[in-house]
Amino acid sequence: MIPLDDGAAAAELDRLPVGVRRLCVVGVDGAPTLVAADRYGLVRVWNLETSALRAEINVGSGINGLAADGVGRICVATDMGLAALRLNPSVRAERRETP
């Protein structure tokens, strides 16, 4: 669980182009991480400690459900079915983010 008083709640993040349908906050590799999905299928992932956008993908269909875990797996339920995504560990290594 991420406390709301540790400064993470004050992060400024880029806006999604349309209304947000689902949000999920989880600790990924020890960093508080926000996963947000909009009504057109755009999924964005932010590190809340640094306010850095870690990933973005357009799954092409409205998001109805969203789940994420601590190792970077993201599952989305869309109007067309389910999609399983994963944050690329090599990208985390290039950014010198520790697992």
How many alpha or pi helices?
Answer: 1
Q: How does the major sheet shape up?
A: 4 strands, antiparallel
Share in β-strands: over 45%
What is the topology, as strand order, of the major beta sheet?
1-2-3-4
Structure explained in plain terms:
This protein is mainly beta. The chain has a four-stranded antiparallel β-sheet with strand order 1-2-3-4, with no helix packed on it. It has a three-stranded antiparallel β-sheet with strand order 5-6-7, with no helix packed on it. A hairpin with a 3-residue loop joins β2 (31-38) and β3 (42-47). The mean pLDDT is 81. Helix content is 6%, strand content 48%. It is built from one helix and seven strands.
Quick overview of this protein structure:
This protein has 1 helix and 7 strands; from the N terminus they run βββββββα.
Topology (SSEs and partners):
Elements: E1 20-28, E2 31-38, E3 42-47, E4 52-58, E5 63-68, E6 73-78, E7 81-86, H1 89-94
Antiparallel strand pairs: 1-2, 2-3, 3-4, 5-6, 6-7
